[in-house]
Amino acid sequence: MAIRDTIDVSSFASTQLSLLDQELQCEIQETSSLISNHSPRALERAGQAITNLVVSSQRTGLGGKTVLELSPDTATSTSGDLPEHGIRTGDIVLVAEQPAGSAKKREVKDLEKKGVRGVVTKVQRSFVGVALDEDKDDAACFIARVWIVKLADEVTYRRMNQTMEKLQKMSEAEYSSFIRVLFGLSSPSPVPADLASDSDVGKIEWFDPILNDSQKDAIRFALASREVALIHGPPGTGKTHTLIELILQMIKRGQKVLVCGPSNISVDNIVERLSPRKVPIVRLGHPARLLPSVLNHSLDVLTKTSEAGAIVKDVRAEMDAKQASIKKTKSGKERRAIYADLKDLRKEYRERERKCVTHLVGGSKVVLATLHGAGGSQLRHAQFDVVVIDEASQALEAQCWVPLLSAKKVVCAGDHLQLPPTIKSLNSKAGSNLKTKGDADGAKMIKGLTLETTLFDRLLALHGPSIKRMLTTQYRMHESIMRFPSNELYESKLIAADAVKARLLRELEYGVEDGEDTTEPIVFIDTQGGDFPEKNEDDGDSDYSKKKGKSSLYGDSKCNEMEAALVRLHVTSLVEAGVRPEDIAVVTPYNAQLAVLAPLKERFPGIELGSVDGFQGREKEAVIVSLVRSNPNGEVGFLGEKRRLNVAMTRPKRSLTVIGDSETVKRGSAFLKKWMEFLEDNADLRYPDLSTVTAGG
Ligand SMILES: Nc1ncnc2c1ncn2[C@@H]1O[C@H](COP(=O)(O)OP(=O)(O)OP(=O)(O)O)[C@@H](O)[C@H]1O
């Protein structure tokens, strides 16, 4: 595979540009096909839109942008609450006048002409905040009823593209020694073999007294490495815990550190744990997207509260007053004059804000941002000694290069044996047929490189395990639950910490009955025999079938209603034994199965239902995995992906229940066969009685 070899940097960048273009086009096609084919109401039900809104307020936010607050139209909502919806902060949306309810064909570009793009900054019960794209004040005067609908996130791509274009244009003479190592043009500087007796990192005074040996070893290694270090953190092994100590040790050595992750939550997680340590930190990013506990460190709040921020305040107030005066003005001439003033004020505001930001960023030992957030203007001239990337195996490599382009050293923490970032163009027909910019330019492409190949994967393949240290003590799973993933994926190296290795449901502190479901760490309910068949989402008379012929709102998916009945029975039995629903999660690889399971949420409020992919990074006391696949051909689809199975089986702390058809699943892959055999030998094995299921389900 090409990723093992030295890579021509320019071809690498061209390939990334081409792949990113394909991915973006795929996302745009998918969104526009949904918007064109479904009514606003249907899109709302599918979590893609919110309808029947009015502008309830308008103000100036960070960067001088106009922020609208959109609330339900009182003519349609009596409670004043937004309907159920799937819009989240950070989503890119279009705010537009609401089209008529019928599902007549509408093109996104026509909608865009009538509306404005923006980023969702706040989601509350009664309103949603949207920061509009720059300089669009005039379009912001929505008088009629509006709706918002999710669009493809082109902003993120723009940052990645700019970064890859820079890399593509660099001449070899411009490559830093860091860049040379990351592409295999040079080897990483050697690290002493015996770090424990090294003069620099051998005698560290630890801030955290409970670090285990593998964590200490990884920290020493990351400190001693000159260009690159990978910290491999299998499930539950305290990756973030280790990174916090590493960051503190770097600060102690006078280094300036930029900490990034692919998502806001991954970054906030670190801010929350660093902030009690009283080191000066700044979190970049829109405040409305940050956790409340992190706000005090956000640049936006610091620009208001710090001394340096005072100069920004007056302009902000003046802009707000101008915005408010627009509503009162009837004459077009006066309005135009106000817009012109606003434009000047915005310029002034940005200028003052920039100075204040440079001052704050310059004064912090640690700056934290999402990977693409690190590409903002605030860091344009900032220099860092090290970039630390958490959840690096879930980030696109192009995204990692946003902070890396001017870095000297990188520490990546992640687990390449769990799921990589989700790529839409990988399996889609649309993706493979698209003609991309790269093809047109005739640039040299690297075979074998996909967007799924993360920086973590590529560096490991390029330089081998000597650039990596693995954390080996896990603090999540019962020893029996850990055994299979440890043996098959982590070279049998995982050790269950004493505090967790024998924990069972019956020992939950709030009192749980002693029974067969609460004393077994692993239960396998084997549906073999063909009585529990899978269904395609559009077979039969389920709700989804009605959408046949249209681009589906749910994607191509599978479900298994009989298996869902078994899940229901097992959850009921756990809850009857005293396990709280909030300590139980049901995970399944298939979205259609999630929809079938949805009524469980009404019956057991607090229970969590999730896709395996969506549950990565999470844990629960009891986890039920519904495998869904049951067919005579032994087809297992994307259940065959080891990394997905790994995520599924490593979520529980005390109890793992697997429900599936061993006959079908065994035929899927060598890994699945081994897993089924492991379950047959080590789990509490049960064969469901069909009559109980029909009666109970
Ligand atoms: N040395 C340690 N001693 C005791 N508990 C630890 C130690 N290191 C980590 N833990 C505990 O293990 C749990 C997982 O740690 P942490 O949250 O840092 O992991 P993570 O990197 O966020 O996630 P992952 O579990 O995916 O690695 C936490 O409850 C943490 O307190």
Automatic annotation (TrEMBL):
Main location: cytoplasm
All copies of domain AAA+ ATPase, residue ranges: 225-466
Gene3D superfamilies per the UniProt record, alphabetical: 2.40.30.270, P-loop containing nucleotide triphosphate hydrolases (3.40.50.300)
Domain named Helicase ATP-binding: residues: 207-447
Keywords: ATP-binding, Cytoplasm, Helicase, Hydrolase, Nucleotide-binding, Nucleus
Protein biosynthesis in keyword set: no
Enzyme class: hydrolase
Keyword Nucleus in record: yes
Cellular localisation: Cytoplasm; Nucleus
Highest taxon in the source lineage: Eukaryota
UniProt region (Disordered), positions on chain: 526-553
Example GO molecular function: hydrolase activity
Gene Ontology cellular-component terms listed: cytoplasm; nucleus
Family per record: Belongs to the DNA2/NAM7 helicase family.
Protein name (Swiss-Prot/TrEMBL): DNA helicase
Native organism: Hapsidospora chrysogenum (strain ATCC 11550 / CBS 779.69 / DSM 880 / IAM 14645 / JCM 23072 / IMI 49137) (Acremonium chrysogenum)
